[in-house]
Amino acid sequence: MTRNTKYTGSYTIGTGEKSVVVENRIVLAPMAGITNKAFLTTAKEFGAGLVISEMISDKGIEFRNKKTLDMLDFVGVPHPLSIQIFGGNSETLVEAAKFVEKNTTADIIDINMGCPVPKVTKNDAGSRLLLDPDKVYDVVSKVSKAISIPLSVKIRLGWDNDHLFAVENAKAIEAGGGALVAMHTRTKAAAYTGHAKDNWDWLGKLTDAVKIPVIGNGDIKGPEDAKQMIDQTGVTAVMMGRAALGNPWVLNRTRHFFESGELLPEPTINEKIQIAKIHLERLVELHGEHLATLEFRSQASYYLKGAKGAAKVKVAVNQAESPQEVFSIFEDFLNPSLTVFDSF
Superkingdom of the source (predicted)? Predict the structure, then answer.
């Protein structure tokens, strides 16, 4: 079978009038607590062809939990947009998917079958589903029939090294009406340890086994890794997650590398701080000043990674109680006439 070796150009998810055309081969991975409206908007501006929301509970949607419903606000995020839901019961997943299609701006609905976190898997959700390809088929079949927009599924390689059902699960997803499968090449047992790159060959097995688009995820740290994954496995597109934290430039640098073969320079700390400030401003619009300041604390460390004097800045940001304080800290950090942070 001939595998994909395209780095540029569009691809299509689904069939018919509700099919979705994605203009490039770069996908932003769903990340819990991170890929909200603020982050997705920035990722789209930096060149991601497709962005996927953080996972949203089917139970939260069922009971119309306010926090859950607020998480579904993606108005203004450039299309195409995928909203990810999770749960362990096909009936509640069906109702959640129908609600998302009717009440949000989603172009695609994604089901999380990869989360390794115990509080998710103990409820038969996330990667727990990977142990039973028949259940995977049942869930995908019921949800895909209940909605008119494309359904995708994100999986892992398997539950552990003794239960590697990636190919069987991908086939079940396709047979059930899934329009795309994305796979992270670690097992549930490995969580985020080890080397996902060692298992990339499994992505090739998926591209050989199914006709729907396959997206590869795991240990893509930059443009050269992304190209290597396509060369090695034939995936339709690459999914980048942790590499984009505090560094959305990696999305544009990868797109540019695919298009031209040229590696653009890494962003300067000044450039990173300017985007960090925009990120915080968007969090304020989304959550209000207090919650935005608290949420941004974890994000700030990514933007500051590797910068001289960053440790002291992180401490200061973690003590800040308002966006204005954070902005002031950043301005002082970038001011070469000040030595409070031992900046350059």
Answer: Bacteria
Q: 163 labelled as ligand-binding?
A: no
Q: Look up residue 217 and give its two tokens.
A: 């995820």
Contact 310, 319 (CB under 8 A): no
Q: Are 93 and 58 in contact (CB under 8 A)?
A: yes
Tell me the domains of the chain and their CATH numbers. Answer: 11-260 (3.20.20.70), 269-334 (1.10.1200.80)
Residues tagged active-site = 115
Consult the annotation and say whether 229 binds a ligand: no
If residue 51 lies in a helix (H) or strand (E), which one and from where to where? strand 50-52
DSSP string, 293-337: HHHHHHHHHHHTTT-TTHHHHHHHHHH--SHHHHHHHHHHHH-TT
pLDDT digits (tens, 9 = 90+) for 249-300: 999 999 999 999 999 999 999 999 999 999 999 999 999 999 999 999 999 9
Report whether 241 belongs to an annotated binding site: yes
pLDDT in tens, 52-92: 999 999 999 999 999 999 999 999 999 999 999 999 999 99
Helix (H, G, I), strand (E, B) or coil at 153: strand
Nearest to 84 by CA among 111, 113, 105: 111
Structure token digits, residue 283: 């969090």
Is 31 annotated as contributing to ligand binding? yes
